[in-house]
Design goal:
about 350 residues; alpha/beta; 2-enoyl-CoA Hydratase, Chain A, domain 1; 9 strands
Length: about 350
């Protein structure tokens, strides 16, 4: 019985290894190249590997420290028109976005029917809204305040006046003159918030007094649109004297049978409220107008009582009898003309 074939495998394997070592190719491969050379067993780079320069070229570039922002092309489409700035604004009362041109066409009243906030306007805008076109004739525009007290706060009073004149193009915080409202001749005085918050100084009191005296002479109805922060502190007692002067002139106007319509707008406060603003035969007010002498905090600390909400607004004052009517700006011209006709002027 023959042995298994597996017993001959070690012998056959030995003979094949012996033959491979004695071949010339094997001798050349096993020859020592030198003492300093690396052993043949060290692996070599594969022949199909790409060159080092190719690897460097194909490697992705490192991202920059800060990526460039993605923007529209620099060259704008010539057919595309840019939208001018300032076309839209947010209502300070209701927060709704308003088209500024629509607000101006609506007499600077919020176009939201649920809001209708009445914005503050300048004297020139008020005259344009009230008077018939081209009928207003200003008077006493040359009067300018002096500085007899040499008053200085953050800067001298003359410098403050100069800067206000340059900024507004007006000499004082009131515009007076004659004009027509729906064909009725009137004497008109309009306080201007854009000039030192419509504060009443010597010139403001003088111009209003002259307007009252002119209305007395001509027997014209007198319309005063009030909007002021009160007496002008830079003129101290001289500004307070204007309260007595204007009130005395209105007393003479009343004795002569004149018709005085006072229009209270936001805000009407301080010495203006304590003088000619509350002396009208008929007192009108715009919706939501702030009307009072002192601030709520001062009043509360003085009388030591809680005050109702909105007690200095036009609607509350109408309920308590200080204001005769609350009239929307769009209806003010018509209401004034009706009162003039009713008064027989």
């Amino acid at each position: 019985m023959s042995k298994p074939a597996t017993t001959r495998e070690p012998a056959d394997r030995h003979r094949r290894r012996r033959a491979a070592e004695e071949s010339p190719a094997a001798q050349d491969a096993t020859a020592a190249p030198g003492a300093d050379d690396e052993p043949l067993s060290q692996p070599t780079a594969p022949t199909d590997a790409p060159p080092a320069t190719a690897q460097a070229a194909s490697a992705p570039e490192a991202p920059p420290d800060r990526a460039a922002p993605r923007t529209w092309p620099d060259e704008a489409d010539p057919k595309r028109k840019k939208v001018p700035e300032g076309l839209w604004m947010r209502c300070v009362a209701c927060g709704e976005m308003l088209f500024r041109k629509a607000l101006e066409d609506n007499l600077h009243v919020c176009t939201n029917d649920k809001c209708q906030h009445h914005y503050r306007i300048s004297a020139s805008q008020r005259v344009q809204q009230l008077c018939d076109p081209g009928t207003f004739e200003p008077m006493d525009e040359h009067l300018v305040s002096a500085d007899p007290l040499h008053f200085t706060d953050l800067k001298p009073y003359p410098e403050r006046l100069k800067s206000e004149i340059e900024r507004t193009g007006r000499n004082e915080a009131v515009t007076t003159g004659s004009g027509y409202i729906h064909g009725r001749r009137v004497m008109l005085a309009v306080l201007d918030l854009t000039f030192m918050m419509g504060s009443m100084g010597s010139v403001v009191g003088e111009k209003i007094t002259r307007a009252i005296e002119r209305a007395t002479e001509q027997d014209w109805p007198l319309i005063i649109v009030c909007s002021s922060g009160g007496a002008r502190m830079q003129e101290s007692t001289l500004s307070l004297m204007q309260m007595a002067k204007t009130s005395a002139a209105l007393a003479q106007f009343d004795d002569a049978g004149g018709l005085y319509i006072s229009v209270l707008t936001d805000p009407t406060t301080g010495g203006v409220t304590a003088s000619f603003a509350m002396l009208g035969d008929v007192i009108l007010a715009e919706p939501g107008a702030l009307i009072g002498f002192a601030g709520p905090r001062v009043i509360q600390q003085t009388i030591r009582q809680d005050l109702p909400d909105g007690f200095q607004r036009a609607e509350f004052l109408k309920k308590t009898g200080f204001v005769d009517r609350v009239v929307k700006r769009a209806e003010l011209r018509r209401e004034i003309s009706r009162i003039i006709d009713y008064g027989g002027k």
